[in-house]
C-alpha cells in the first residue's frame, strides 16, 4: 500500500501538546455559543408537538459513542434501555426515527453486533455500550465529538473536540458538504499528529466519511447534504432529535446508495488521499461493514463476515465483489 497522505498531513498539522477533553474551555476563536442543555421531557409527547418524549439515559440504561443511536434511544424510538439491539429492531427504529433504509441498517447493525464480545452464544444483538470497542469495526480515532481511545474515554461527548468542528461553521446557519468535509479532515489530521497510538485503516477511513454523511443526511437532506446547523448541534450536543426546532425525518430515505454518493463528494471536497485500490461509494461502504477488504473484495474480518451471513447483510454480495474487483 502506498504511503498515505493523511500521515504526512498529520505530521505537518499544528502540534497540540495535550489531548482535548481535559477541560471544556472554549478556546477557539469564532466558536458558536453553546446551546443550553435540554430539559428532560416527562410526558409521552410534548404540548407543542406530536413527537416522542425525550430524556437522557437513566440508571441501568446504556448509551454509545454514536450520537444517532443515542438520540433515538433518548426518545425511546430505539429501545431506551440501550440493550438488546437486533437487526429487526434496528431496521424498524432507524426507519421510523430517521428514515434510514433497511439496506444500511442491516449492514451497520451487523457491524454493531460484531462489537458484542460474544455474539453467537448470546444472540445476534448488541448493547449500545458495546460499541465502545475500539478499532474492531466501527469505533475509531479522529472522531468529530469523541476523544481517541488512547485518552481512556472514546465514549463521551467531548465539547472541546466538537468545538473544533463547530469552528468551521462559524457564521453559517447550515452544515454543508464542503465545510463538513474540511472539519472532518481536520479531526483526522489533528489526531494523527498528536495521538501516538493513532490508527486509521481503510475501514475507518470509509466509515468516518460515512458518519459525516449520516449527520448531513438525517438532519438535513440525503441528496444535497445541507442540514440546519442547529439541528446538527441538537443531535451531537443534546443527543436529541430536533423536533422542537421544526425538524422532521427527511422525506428522502438515507440508504447505502445515498451515503455512498455523499462519501464520494465529501472526499472530493476534503482532498484527502484515498487508500490505494479503494473505489469510494456504496460498494466500498457495504464491503467494510460486512468484513470485506474495500479494495480487493477479499474476506478481511472473518468474524464479521460470518455474522453477515447470519444477519442477511451479505445481500447482493455478487454485485459488491464485482464492483470492487472490476471483474
Ligand atoms: C446500527 C446503526 C448504527 C451503529 C451500530 C452505529 C455505530 C456508531 C459508532 C460505534 C460510532 C463511533 C465511531 C467513532 O469512533 O467515532 C458512531 C459514530 C457516529 N454515528 Fe453511528 N451508528 C449507527 C447508526 C447511526 C445513524 C442512523 C446515525 C444518524 C445520525 C449515526 C450517526 C453517527 C455519527 C454522526 C457519528 C460520528 C460521531 C463522531 O465522530 O463524533 N449513526 N456510530
From TrEMBL:
<dbReference type="Pfam" id="PF01328">
    <property type="entry name" value="Peroxidase_2"/>
</dbReference>
<keyword id="KW-0479">Metal-binding</keyword>
<keyword id="KW-0349">Heme</keyword>
<feature type="signal peptide">
    <location>
        <begin position="1"/>
        <end position="18"/>
    </location>
</feature>
<keyword id="KW-0408">Iron</keyword>
<keyword id="KW-0732">Signal</keyword>
<feature type="region of interest" description="Disordered">
    <location>
        <begin position="35"/>
        <end position="60"/>
    </location>
</feature>
<comment type="similarity">
    <text>Belongs to the chloroperoxidase family.</text>
</comment>
<dbReference type="GO" id="GO:0004601">
    <property type="term" value="F:peroxidase activity"/>
</dbReference>
<dbReference type="GO" id="GO:0046872">
    <property type="term" value="F:metal ion binding"/>
</dbReference>
<keyword id="KW-0560">Oxidoreductase</keyword>
<feature type="domain" description="Heme haloperoxidase family profile">
    <location>
        <begin position="50"/>
        <end position="261"/>
    </location>
</feature>
<protein>
    <recommendedName>
        <fullName>Heme haloperoxidase family profile domain-containing protein</fullName>
    </recommendedName>
</protein>
<dbReference type="InterPro" id="IPR000028">
    <property type="entry name" value="Chloroperoxidase"/>
</dbReference>
<dbReference type="InterPro" id="IPR036851">
    <property type="entry name" value="Chloroperoxidase-like_sf"/>
</dbReference>
<keyword id="KW-0575">Peroxidase</keyword>
Amino acid at each position: 500500500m502506498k504511503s498515505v497522505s493523511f500521515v504526512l498531513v498529520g505530521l505537518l498539522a499544528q502540534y497540540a501538546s495535550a489531548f482535548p477533553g481535559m477541560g471544556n474551555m472554549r478556546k477557539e476563536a469564532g466558536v458558536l455559543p453553546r446551546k443550553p442543555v435540554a430539559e428532560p421531557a416527562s410526558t409521552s409527547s410534548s404540548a407543542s408537538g406530536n413527537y416522542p418524549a425525550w430524556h437522557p439515559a437513566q440508571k441501568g440504561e446504556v448509551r454509545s459513542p454514536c450520537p444517532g443511536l443515542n438520540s433515538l434511544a433518548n426518545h425511546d424510538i430505539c429501545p431506551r434501555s440501550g440493550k438488546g439491539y437486533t437487526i429487526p429492531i434496528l431496521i424498524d427504529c432507524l426507519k421510523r426515527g430517521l428514515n434510514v433504509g433497511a439496506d444500511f441498517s442491516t449492514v451497520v447493525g451487523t457491524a454493531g453486533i460484531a462489537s458484542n464480545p460474544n455474539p453467537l452464544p448470546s444472540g445476534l444483538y448488541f448493547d449500545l455500550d458495546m460499541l465502545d470497542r475500539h478499532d474492531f469495526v466501527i469505533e475509531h480515532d479522529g472522531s468529530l465529538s469523541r476523544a481517541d481511545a488512547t485518552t481512556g474515554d472514546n465514549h463521551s461527548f467531548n465539547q472541546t473536540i466538537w468545538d473544533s468542528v463547530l469552528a468551521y461553521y462559524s457564521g453559517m446557519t447550515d452544515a454543508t458538504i464542503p465545510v463538513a468535509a474540511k472539519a472532518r479532515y481536520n479531526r483526522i489530521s489533528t489526531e494523527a499528529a498528536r495521538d501516538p497510538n493513532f490508527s486509521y485503516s481503510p475501514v475507518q477511513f470509509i466509515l468516518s466519511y460515512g458518519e459525516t454523511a449520516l449527520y448531513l443526511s438525517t438532519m438535513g437532506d440525503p441528496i444535497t447534504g445541507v442540514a440546519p446547523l442547529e439541528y446538527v448541534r441538537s443531535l451531537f450536543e443534546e443527543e436529541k432529535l430536533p423536533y422542537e426546532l421544526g425538524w422532521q425525518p427527511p422525506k428522502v430515505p438515507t440508504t447505502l446508495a445515498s451515503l455512498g454518493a455523499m462519501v464520494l463528494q465529501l472526499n472530493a471536497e476534503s482532498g484527502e488521499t484515498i487508500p490505494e485500490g479503494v473505489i469510494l461509494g456504496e460498494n466500498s461502504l457495504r464491503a467494510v461493514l460486512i468484513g470485506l477488504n474495500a479494495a480487493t473484495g477479499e474476506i478481511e474480518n472473518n468474524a464479521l463476515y460470518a455474522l453477515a451471513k447470519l444477519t442477511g447483510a451479505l445481500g447482493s454480495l455478487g454485485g459488491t465483489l464485482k464492483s470492487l474487483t472490476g471483474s
